[in-house]
């Protein structure tokens, strides 16, 4: 069983195994925790938190870029897209990967492919599925002191590294 991260209907989706998904999300989590500053950023972090297979179940996570609420105005959508690309770029720079308990050899390729998908994507004025992207009240704004990343609150206590045990 695998997980799908959709490209917004272009057919160029990213299909990952359960292990590939976990490593991909670990890399993104380290980056989003470093860069999140604005309310939308923390909502995107919450979306990533909801992909934690240790809590949600293996083979049942993933989201489509078209299901994200990118914002109401062209400027908001551009800023949100820039943030996502910045998160991916920081992950591609192997930000804090030395703290992981494993070496993710395939993650750079996943991240490059996902970056290309996100870069080519044109955010729509309204999301295709408004139930997918966490609202402002569900943003991941708490911090996991142990791992120095965002916590998965308000969904559950602990961060993706607390539930997965993949960080030193």
Tell me what you see in this structure:
The chain is mostly helical. The chain has helices at residues 18-35, 39-49, 53-56, 74-92, 107-120, 160-164; strands at residues 2-5, 14-17, 143-144, 149-150. It has a two-stranded antiparallel sheet. A hairpin with a 4-residue loop joins β3 (143-144) and β4 (149-150). The protein is globular, with a radius of gyration of 15 Å. It starts with a strand and ends with a helix.
Order of helices and strands: EEHHHHHEEH
Overall shape: globular
β-strand number:
4
**N- and C-termini, Cα separation:** 28 Å
Quaternary state reads single chain
The radius of gyration is 15 Å
Question: Which strands sit side by side, in order, in the main sheet?
Answer: 1-2
- Average predicted local confidence, pLDDT: 80
Low-pLDDT runs: none
Q: What is the helix fraction of residues, given as a range?
A: 40-55%
The helix count comes to: 6
Q: Roughly what fraction of the amino acids lie in strands?
A: 5-15%
Alpha-beta content class: mainly alpha
The largest sheet, given as strand count, sense and whether it forms a barrel, is: 2 strands, antiparallel
């Amino acid at each position: 069983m695998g997980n799908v991260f959709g490209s917004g209907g272009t057919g160029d989706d990213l299909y990952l195994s359960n292990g590939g998904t976990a490593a991909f999300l670990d890399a993104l989590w380290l980056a989003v925790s470093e860069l999140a500053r604005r309310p939308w950023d923390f909502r995107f972090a919450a979306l990533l938190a909801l992909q934690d297979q240790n809590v949600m179940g293996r083979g049942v996570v993933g989201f489509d870029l078209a299901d994200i609420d990118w914002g109401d105005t062209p400027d908001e959508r551009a800023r949100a897209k820039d943030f996502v690309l910045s998160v991916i770029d920081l992950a591609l720079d192997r930000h804090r990967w030395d703290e992981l308990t494993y070496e993710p050899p395939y993650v750079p390729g996943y991240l490059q492919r996902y970056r290309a998908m996100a870069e080519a994507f044109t955010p729509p004025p309204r999301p295709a599925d408004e139930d997918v992207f966490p609202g402002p009240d569900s943003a991941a704004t708490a911090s996991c002191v142990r791992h120095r990343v965002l916590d998965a609150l308000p969904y559950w206590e602990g961060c993706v590294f607390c539930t997965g045990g993949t960080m030193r």
